[in-house]
Structure formats: C-alpha cells, structure tokens
Write the structure tokens for this entry.
Amino acid sequence: MKKFLAILLAAMMALTMTAAVAETAAPAEEKGTIVYGASTEIGGDFAPGAWYTNNATDKMLRDLSTDYYTVVTDQGGAYVVNNTVTDSIEGTVNEDGTKTFTIKVKEGLTYNNGDPINIYDFAWYPVFSCSKLMTDVGAKLTGYLSYVGGQDFYDGKATVVSGIRILDDYTMSVQIVADKVPYFYDEAYAQFAPFSLKYWLGEGIEVKDDGEGAYLAGDFTTESVQKALDYSRFHAGEDRVTAGPYNLIEYDVAAKQATLVINDKYAGNFEGQKPSIKKIVVLRAEDATWADAIKTGGFNFYDTITDGAQVNTAMDIIEDPSVKEALGYGFNYVQFDRAGYGFLHFSCDFGPTQFVAVRHAIAQLLDRNEFANTFCQGWGGVVNSQYGTGLWQYQMAEEWLNENLNTYPYDPDAAVQTLIDDGWVLAEDGTEYKEGVRWKEVTPEQAGTYQYNVTLDDGRILMPLKMDWSSSDGNSVSDLLAVMLANGEQTKAAGIEINQQVMTFTELLNYYYRDATQGDKYGVPTYCLFNLANNFTPAFDQSYEWTQDPDMIAQGYNVSRLYDPEIDKLSMDMVYGVESGDIDAYMEIWKAYELRWNEQLPQVPLYSNVYISMYPEWLQNYTQDTFWNFEQAILYATVAE
Amino acid sequence: MGKYILKRLGYIVVVFLIVSLLMYSLYNLIPSDPARQELEPQRRNMKPDEYEAAYQRLRAQMGLDDPLIVRYLRWIGLWKDMDGTFNGVFQGNFGYSNLYKQNVIEVIKAPMSNTIFINIFSTILSLGITIPLGIYCAVHKGKRFDSATQVVTMLGYSIPIYIIALIFMFLFCIVWRVFPVMGTKTAGATYANNWEEFVDKLYHITLPVIVMTFGSLGGMTRYVRSAMIDALSMDYIRTARAKGLKEKVVIYSHAWRNALLPVITSILGWFLSIFSGSVIIENTFSLNGMGKLYWQGLNNLDFELVLAIQMFYSIVSLVGSLLIDISYGLVDPRVRVDK
C-alpha cells in the first residue's frame, strides 16, 4: 500500500509540476509568428484542388504551399493571368466550336527543393484527370468531360488525350469541348499549377506527347500510384515537394497542428509579392473556448469570425487593455462582407408558395432589417436579390440595384392587400373570409396533391394559406424566424399559418432535394419553406439553376422548382452567351437576372453578414476581403518594427 | 477454466456478429446519401454532366445500390468487394472514413493514443484518491471529515462535467494562467528530444486530467465507502478485532479484501474505459481523442468510422465482462468460474 501511495504521489507531482517544468515559449507570443486559429479542424488531406476532400482548413494549407497557377483570382475575385509564372496564354476558337488555350510558362521556376519546373509539371495533372486510374484511386476529377478526346481516353478507346498537347518544354495546349464554350469565366479552363509528378505519382511515370496527344507512360498502375499518392496526400515534412509561398514542414496528427515556414525559392504571386511572415502555425480553435485561448496566447490570429455574438466578443477583446497588458501585444481587425446570405427558401411548384403573390406577402410580413440586425448583432445587413455585398458585381451595380430592386419593406397591411389581390379572400367553407386562415379557389393543376386542400360540394377546390416549414435542429436562424415570422401576430392577422417542423439537416436536405432514393416520403412535395444559407465563389455562375429539365432537377438543380423560362435563359446567357472579358455585356444580363429574381422571389434573403478577422497588432499591411483570403493576404503582411 | 474461457470467447463472436448487424442496419436506416453528401460542397463548381458523372461513380464505388445485407456482408468481409476481393472487418479492414478519406484504422491511431495517454493518468489518479478516501471515510464514518467528504463528493457527482471544466478552465487558465486553454502541444514548438515533447504534452493534458479526476471522485469514493461500511459491519471483523489483530490488518486484510468484490466491477470498468474518450472534455479542451472523433463521425454521418469505433467498444466491453468474471474467481475463492 505504501509503495502504491508513493507511486501515486509521484504521478500527481509529475502532473502538477509540469506547469513549472514546461518552459517552451508559446509562439503566439512570439512576434513574427502567426498562430492561426481555424474554425474547422485540419483533416490532413493535402491533395491539390478538390481531388478528394473539401475541408476548408486543408484547402488553406494547400493554398499556402501551392501556387504558380497560370491563372489566379485577384483581390476582387476576378480571374487574371499570373505573370510570375505565365509567359503567355492565347485562346483560339476553332471551326468545330471547340476552344484551344495555348499556355507558355516561364523558365527558371523551381520547386521548394530546387528541382526545375517545366510544362510537364503542369500537363500531367489534366491528363491524370482524364484517366480511369484517377477514379480507381478514389479521386473526384472530371477533366475528361472538358478536354477534347478526354472521354475516349477515359473509356479506354484512345491511348492519348488528343485535346491536351505538349508543344515544347515550356508550352502546352488544351482544347475544350464545344458545348462548354463560350463561357464567361473561360480563363478557368487555362488554370493549371505545377505538381511534381515524381512526388505525387511516384518514380517511373512520365507525361509524354508523341504528336497525337498527351498520355502518362511508365508504371501507371493503381498499385504503383496508390502508395505514392497516399504519402503525398497525407504527409507533411521537409521532403514535401511544392511550389508555394510556404513549405508545409509539419503536420502533427495527434495535436492536429500544422506548421509552415517561408519557401525561400518562391518567386512571388501574380504581382511578384513574396511573404515576410516567417512562420505560420495552424491549429483548431473551439467555438466554446476560442476567446479564452486567444486572450491567453493560445493563438493570435482568428480568421473570418462569422457569428455576430462572436464578433462582439472579438471586439471586446480588441478593446480590452488588460489583454494587451497580459500578452504584451493587442489586436487589430479587418472587416469584410460575406459573398452570400441566409435565406428563406420557397418551393415554387406546389402549395401556396407556388403563387408569387404569396412569396411577396411573406417577404412583406418579415421585418428583414430588424431580423438581420438581431441575428447578426449589428454585423450584417439585408440584400434584396441573389447576391452578396462582397461580390464584385454588386459593387459595380450597387446604385442600380438600390434604385431598381423591390426591397419588400415590412408592411403587414400591404401584405394583406397583396393576398387579397391574388384571390386569397375565402374562408374554408367557400364563403367570404373573415378571420383565421385565408383560402383561395384554385384549379386542379394548381391544387396538385397539396395535403391541406379541400373540395367543396359544388366542386370548387380551395387551398389554404397553411404551409409547413422545414428547419434544421439547433439553428438560431430558425429560432428567430419562428419568433419574427411563423409565430408572429402579423402573420396570423394576415391569415397565414406556418408550421415549423424541426429535423436533422440531413433529413432537411432529403426533403429539399425531394430525394426519393432515401425514402418514398421525401419524393413527395411536403414543405413549402426551408431556411438555409449560401456562399458564392468568385465565378458567379447560376447556369442550370433554373432548368426545367426533369433529369437535372432530379440531380439537384432548380431546387426551387421555379419554372420560369426568362430567369432560366438569363442565367444561361450570363455565362454561356458572353465572351470572357466582355464585362459590359455580362453586367447587363446580370442586372436583368437579378431583377427577374427579385420579382419572382424564389427565396427571401434574410441577412448577409459582415465578417471580421482579428490579428496581432504587430502585423501590418494585412487586408482581407471576401475573395481575398488569409492565404493570399498574408503575403503582403509585414511585422511592425 | 480454459474450457470456460473458450466458451465465453465463442459467445463473444456470436454477440459481436449480432451487434454488428444491428448497428450496421441502424445506421443504414438513417436517410442519407453519402455520395450526394460527399459531392454537395463541390456541386456549384461542377457542370451538370460533371456532377452526374461524379455522383454515379461515387455511388458505384460506395456500393450504395446493393441491398443492405450485401453491403453488410461486404463490410464484415464475407462478400466480395467492388474489386473482387474479400476486404472487410475479418480481413483487418475496418472501413473507410468518408470524412478523412482514409482507412478507419489510420484515422483512429492518433486519437486512440491521445485518449489512452490521458485516461491512464486520470484513472490512476482517480483510483489512487478514491479508494484510500473511501476506506478512510468508512472507517471514520460519521466523523467531521467523512461528512465533509460526502458533501464534496456529492457536489462532484452532481455538477455536470462541462461546468467543472469551464470553472477549472476559468480559474487555472484565465485567472492564474497556470495551464493552457487547449490542445496537446505548444503551438509550433520544436523539441530537442522526446522528453521535452513528453513534458509539453503532460503540461497540456494536466488540466483535462484534473477535471476528469475531479468529476469522477464522487462516484467511486461513495462506492468504496459503502462497500467498506458493509464489510466492517460483518461478524468476522468483530471476530478479527476480538482476536486482537491490529486495526490496519483488520481494515486492509479482512475488510478491504471482502469489500473488493463489488468494487472490482467498477475498477475494471474504469481500466477498460481508458480506450473511450470523453466527448465533452476533449471538445472543451480541443484534444484530439476518441470522444471527439466519435462526435465528429456522428455529426458528419461518417458511419463506417462510427461503426468501427462502436464495434471496438463492443469488443472491449465483451472482453471486459469476461475479465471481470474471471477476476471474481481470483479475488474471491468462493466464486468458481469454470462452469
């Protein structure tokens, strides 16, 4: 017993004394080292692009260590040629409707290990994306659908990809299939980055072109590739071969912590900018404890704080002098608009929400300014159509949008009038409406199989303003919507009944997509309303989102089921009817599209956040924006003397 | 004894198969489409033909169009996989994590190691405190120390662990700044040797271990105290004292040995629980452990990962109950486990 107690005492002492023994300085307190608190955990898959996963923090780590893309997005999210890497890019429309991009890269570029970069490093990846082997190793690439000859190569009918050509050691061309051009963002078709073939697929494989097209030669089998691929995907270390501003020198799986240091062989980004922050450490910041962690030096950079309450907490920390006193440094912040918004989604093909007047009335019954202000706690606003205030299109057309879009201001009386004008003037028995839920006489086509309809003795079919709303559990937007809209007195007074059904997000998506493969009940139109959120990428492309093709709808396009030929045409013309670079033509269609969307109102935009990122005050020249992420902005940041 | 153990091992295999079928079926009843879920974040970057091709390919790769029983048999390793080989649990393949895009066995390694590391300290500390404390309180039943301990242990037992964690974090991390708020490693630290790394890790897990220990004091202390009070009230204790044996001998050799029988179930249960992480503690302190992994697996509908973890715990529980039964025989000669 005595021995046991002695061992126990020793264990306790060891534990409690480690605080005194551990003298490792916290790098968060070291000037010049960014300790980045990520709101999503590192997954540990560092394969380029979206070969396998879409984890946001993995993507950031990849982007910090991978650059030299021939085409990149600039500070405003527009595609630009990367002049540090690219000598020239020429696009030629061929007689058969295809388009060929000839890309010449500069000489003298190297990987972080000193190996020279030439066109073969750029060309193997698109060839790989056309190969059957790519799917055998689990990658999710679909390049074979874009390059001429890609499908035949994928199907095994051809031994080369005829649309990918290696013209010399620094020049290649890619030929894009006819049905994908013209495309407003077609610079993206010419966007390639160098990846070390030896590092990613292993020794003994090379990309070749004997005059007919490019192909991968050597031991190009699943067995040989898989091992190299697994290593390069999941490994971080000094031997990792990349060509970006930073080298990913360590990923501690147990601690879920990654470390990057400057790549001294990096030639600069598209503006020739090289980083000066020497070290970046990335770790997970938990929602519940991030504020305590940043106040005590656990990390010193918190990127893209989205929640209004968290933004206010961050502001408190920034303004608190005791934090600076304790840490030896304070914090600054940068704010930027979200390129997206939270919304109330309507099913536009059945029930009351198939009528545009009902959608308008619901918008008028919700005080969206108050909603946005409450939900975002002052860090957000309202948009009136399908855009986010962070989009360059919005910034170009802000004045026009303010003048032309209907803002659907909060006006319960106007909402009632809108409903009356649309024929919602009956009671359940077909007599004149006095109180309760409003009803409307509808045609059999409009009635469909809506569960709440009644058929009167005289054969008239009546539809009530009674709607089911699907909302996910643990969702604060849903809670606020329930208070301000579904259970609001103004909604009841207008004769509308909205029943909230709380469910898991997975189940919500099944109803949203009407995915009958998950159960027959999901295939039946059930919910008129859903609340969700979106984010736009720099390429604002809404093509096919309003399609009337049943097959595409089954795939998940046009989830609103808004069958409006005009908005469908505008969404297609916006990207497929305009040559890249013709901004004026694009903007004309974009504005027409936004106006039509605003009239049809398939969603009620609820809020568009203002985000902030907080960083140590010794960091200077740090400017982040909607499409100018940390990994891009940090290259320009310096350490204050 | 050997025959008994073999028989029990046979039961374990049968129970494992039944549990695995039930769990697999339950998870597959949840209406979700892993292929769609996988592609959803990229849908906006794909054109319809690209999305459809990728979706159908994923469904085929995941074998989602096969009947449930086929998918189960494939997962367990009794049905040929998509590549024509048997490659399931029986062949050592515990599945593929859709969340981490790796084999489950690879995903589990690091969290399991962290969890065991933390739980070993916590379990030793907890048992080291609660057993002597419980014995002392039983021997000094009704005294001021015993009453005070009852109050404190009741508090520890009643307060939810996340409250304890937050209070301790506030005191130790914010007010006194003794321990770090999160993680198992100083950010960006480079170590000269393994000892430095070990000490840094120990430093980071100290507060979680203290919280876990504090949270578990109440239950075991009261359990040991209760068992000891029962034992001390037995006639053989009076006899031992009447024989003039020293009080220490009476308590530790006579009373404790007999009190151990009900306590041993809990003690072994604790040692077996070193493999299972705490969802709350690991999430609060941002520790990469089994509890957090399990939670993430569930939230992301990564069912093969969750299944593998659950089946592992099933085996640990089944083997644990066998060990407990065997240990009864070792602790109490009156109990025979060979039938």
About this structure: The CA atoms of residues 427 and 434 of chain A lie 7 Å apart. Residues 19-25 of chain A have pLDDT under 50 and may be disordered.
